[in-house]
Amino acid sequence: MEELDYLYHYTNIETLALILKNKTVRFNSLDKMDDLQEQQTADVKNIGQFCYISSWTDDSTESIPMWNMYASLDFGVRIRLCKNPFKIYETPVEEASKTLNMNIKGETNEGTVHSIIPLIEMFEKGFYSIQAINQNLLYKVEYTNDNEKLYPHLLNENGDQFSLSLGDVGKHKNLHWQFQKEWRYILNILPLNMNRSAEAMDYDFQLVANKIKLGLEKQPFSYYDMQISENAFKEMEITFSPCLSEGNRVIVQALIEKYNPTASLKESSLIGLI
Q1: Contact 244, 74 (CB under 8 A)
Q2: Dihedral sign (CA 137, 138, 142, 143)
Q3: What is the pLDDT of residue 139?
Q4: Is the distance from CB of 40 to CB of 152 less than 8 angstroms?
Q5: Is 30 buried (19+), middle (13-18) or exposed (0-12) by CB count in 10 A?
Q6: pLDDT at 36
């Protein structure tokens, strides 16, 4: 992966207020994105609903198209956060294994499982995400006209057996979108009741996989809010949109003062140019 320290997210003041108040970043499912093409695959219907993403860019230079499409020249902001800014939860291996009814290894440190979604939350709400544990969720979007990548084959069948590969979902976009210079965080989240024995969970997983294959399974929720770590939150930088009104400027400053006084505010480099 390329070396980078920060990523940028264009949004409006209302969304900024929620990010600051809740200290969260929202992941929306792929079927809610503006690029309708990218939720489609060659062989499985409706699978984009299980792929949750948060879109960012590595371009530190302000982009007029990005201001116009995802924020506003008049009442938008651009948020800068360090890469992988999410809070890490620690659960003792013994407790994690007991909670999830399985032998947990994963990323451990002195007998501790590190995850970016609390294991107990997945257990109680009936869902599972492999990225929650391996924390490998940041990808640079590849822009292409290759239909094999834009409409990937996810289904591998061998007699009565089959497997689904979600790894290629959400990582490619049409060349028309390359101005975004997008990086995205991707969580694959599947409905799974983990309050059962390992054998029962294995059966349930096969049942869910079969329903996904047939396009019949429903997503566990339409979005997921990831908690931002304290250090990343404190180091946030916010750039005003180029034509921000004085009233909206006061609103942003008040939000910062109340929820994140250590964040830095920055004027747009496009003031007077557009």
Answers
A1: yes
A2: positive
A3: 95
A4: no
A5: buried
A6: 61
**What's at 157, amino acid-wise?**
E
Gap between the Cα atoms of 201 and 44, Å rounded? 23
Query: Which residues of the chain have a pLDDT value below 50?
Result: 106-108
Can you give the pTM of this predicted structure? Answer: 0.87
pLDDT for res 102: 60
Residue type, 41: T
Q: Pairing between strand 161-164 and 155-158?
A: antiparallel
DSSP conformation class of 162: E
Q: DSSP of 196-250, one letter per residue? A: S-HHHHHHHHHHHHHHHHTT----S-SEEEEEBPHHHHHT-EEEEPTT--HHHHH
Summarised one tens digit per residue, pLDDT across range 52-77 is: 999 999 999 999 999 999 998 899 99
Q: Which residues contact 104 (CB under 8 A, 6 or more apart)?
A: 93, 96, 97, 113
The dihedral sign for the CA sequence 20, 84, 25, 130: negative
Identify the residue whose tokens are 């790894």: 167
Give me the residue spans of the domains in the chain. Answer: 6-266
d(C-alpha 164, C-alpha 239), whole Å: 41
* φ/ψ of residue 233, rounded to 5: -65, -45
**169 and 30 Cβ atoms separated by less than 8 Å:** yes
